[in-house]
Specification:
By secondary structure, the protein is of the alpha+beta class. The chain contains three helices and five strands; from the N terminus they run βααββββα. Helices cover 29% and strands 19% of the residues. The strands form two sheets. Strands 2-1-3 form a three-stranded mixed β-sheet. Strands 4-5 form a two-stranded antiparallel ribbon. Strand 4 and strand 5 form a beta hairpin. The termini are far apart.
């Protein structure tokens, strides 16, 4: 059995009303999150209604392939980490003001 792994990648689904602005700033947004949370990677996900439509949804990628070719589950991330990521998403300046970009 493979060693346990923590989640290292997240999919971010923006609120429905902000989907166009997030899509326009996708690369900058993903880089902002990667800089805020070193060691983790982020992708803007498909724009489907997920959870509360006024908040960003943070979806951890929970599986990984083992050396034996089977799929295994990661250790679930702590709720405080998911909330910190969601808060960072909400604090991101979609209009691109330099003082809020990093």
């Amino acid at each position: 059995m493979p060693t346990e792994r923590e989640v290292l990648e997240f999919i971010i689904v923006p609120p429905f009303e902000q989907r166009a602005a997030v899509a326009a700033a996708k690369e900058r947004f993903e880089n902002y999150l990667a800089n805020r949370f070193p060691g983790y990677s982020f992708r803007v996900g498909p724009f489907a209604p997920v959870g509360d439509e006024d908040e960003f949804s943070v979806l951890p990628i929970m599986n990984f392939p083992g050396d034996d070719g089977r799929s295994y589950m990661c250790t679930p991330p702590k709720r405080w980490l998911l909330q910190e990521i969601a808060d960072a998403c909400a604090g991101f300046d979609l209009k691109g003001k330099r003082s809020f970009a990093a």
